[in-house]
Amino acid sequence: MSDITVVHVMRHGEVANPDGILYGRLPGYHLSELGRRMADRVAEHLASRDVTHVVSSPLERARETAAPIAELHGLDLATDPRLIEADNVFQGKTFGVGDGALRRPENWKHLVNPFKPSWGEPYLEQVVRMMGALDAAKDAARGHEAVCVSHQLPIWIVRSFVERRRLWHDPRKRQCTLASLTTFTYQGDKIVSVGYTEPARDLVPVHLLAGAKGVKGKDKAFGA
Question: What CA–CA distance (Å, rounded) separates 164 from 209?
């Protein structure tokens, strides 16, 4: 058996969310038609890969994204609660570029410490659970490849940790576009490289691409 194992961590596809709610961990948010196309595109991209394990966050949008990949490889879809979206006190509300949320006094108490962050699950807690999920996927697919479907912030935080960057950051600069793959290559039990690809880039609205400038009314922090 090879001592090289590859773990692809995929962000789910676009979600149907016409009201622009920061949905976080709320149930009932499913992929849009475009999101399903994104999921199919990535499944096609991974069709020739040696994928032997597919696992997702328990949230609907993640499971729906992972399903075509598992089906194409003839695998059962597993779930791992450690892959879930980061907790956020603004869940269920609108909170994004240009909506005035930062000027509302009731929100100020949650914005005092961006380094932790004070409005949600601490970055270090996200690192611990995501590293645990990646290690479990690596063990399940040892010598082959695994796909884990998760959410933007936890993916970016675990990548930042592995690449030894600070964990606090400007959310607009995360390199983790919808349906993207952040790929961790293990030699034995050690991560030796990190890669990033966007197989569905042409399907992603321009203002939602990695590093794109926020657009008023179109860039709410929906939960990802």
Answer: 24
